[in-house]
Amino acid sequence: MVIRLARQRVCSICVTPREETPEWERAAATAVCGQVRELVRVSAGRSARLSREQKGQFVAVCWTAQMYLHFDDPKPRYVAGWGDLPEWQRETDADIFEAVEQSG
Predict the structure, then answer these.
(1) Rounded to an integer, what distance in angstroms lies between the CA atom of residue 33 and that of residue 20?
(2) CA proximity to 56, closest of 87, 90, 24
């Protein structure tokens, strides 16, 4: 299962065939999913006690770090702070965390 992070899309959750997703975006999404899995593991599942907002913020920070890894000068919307993200993006980030968390 590929969970696609949708920072640059104007929708709540975008599903694009893997072959149509740029390599950098696949790599970034894979890294973020791994970071969420690792947080769940090292917290012995206690990450379930995080608020939905905290879960979304974690995904947002991981995504931002990936954008700086993949781009020397990322678009501002790729690295926007939590307070600057539209509501649909904050909800998507929380959805991503919860989907990874529940996938075991």
Answers:
(1) 19
(2) 90
C-alpha distances out from residue 6 to 25, 42, 43, 47, 58, Å: 9, 26, 26, 23, 15
By the 8 A CB rule, do 24 and 103 touch? no
The one-letter code for the residue type at 40 is V
3-state secondary structure of 104: coil
Residue ranges of the alpha helices (H) in the chain?
23-42, 52-70, 87-102
Digit-coded pLDDT (tens) for 50-89:
999 999 999 999 999 999 999 999 999 999 999 999 999 9
Single pTM value for the model = 0.84
CA distance 30 to 23: 11
Dist. CA 95–CA 77, nearest whole Å: 19
d(CA 104, CA 99): 9
CB-based burial, 27-41: b 16+ in 10 Å, e otherwise:
ebbebbbebbeebbe
